[in-house]
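Annex B. Sample input.
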Amino acid sequence: MPDRRPPARAARLILGDERVSANPKLNNCLRGWRSAAHDWVVLADSNVAMPPDYLQRLQAAWRGGTGLVCSTPVGARPDGLMAEVECAFLNTLQARWQYAAEAFGLGFAQGKSMLWHKAFLDQRGGLQALATEIAEDAAATKLVRAAGRRVHLVASPFEQPLGRRGFAEVWARQLRWARLRRVTFPLFFAPEIGSGVLLPALLVAVWAGSLAGIAGAAGLVALCYGAEYRLAARAGWHRSPRMLAAFLVRDALIPAIWLGAWVQSAIVWRGNAMDVRPRRAAVDRPYAPTA
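Annex B, continued. Sample output.
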């Protein structure tokens, strides 16, 4: 039998965090970042499904002028309608827009998987530099752009297994992300109310005030949802007979989530109450790149 034990590697388990920001994820990663001994570091969420070639796919997206490589999550293995709605948000809406933005040279970071060249970030303040925004991926986007570099995406995004989701869970998560986008990129967030097709179609039907207008609106919805389904099929993302219902629920929620993002600036993330309003300075202590 072949020896299937992993090769010997120098490794340490680092426990504890350092509070440099209101972002618990950033605080938790700081000691690991300072102790990292290699040139490339990946910051990854625990709910990312990492394929065997995970690191190779991240590295393959690095090219000249790159400051950061990341991957948007695509929902997989949903259980129940609301988990399907989460897939409709993550896959054919958010991933679609993120890849479109990169195609036009406006790539932005997604915190699920981020590949950094350590020296590049250390020269700009290290991991603490990402504490200038409440969301580390928003801070990463601004830091990379300020350096004259670009954010690039992996060719094929990594999955996030969803399992069962309830309405309250999906609502809370989407509202939290919306509030973060509203605070960190308000000009880009403002038109999000029209990102789903249902609201524009209803406005067309009301404006037309006729059966022809209603038929045209229904045709618009069918065309857009058909294109979304085709995108999911082409990309190999989750598909099911409930996708139409998931699209409708998602697009009905988008205006309510958009309005909710403007009303309140407080979020709860993994039990941590956080105020997402911009702050003048989020870093209190100087950065030391060595442990």
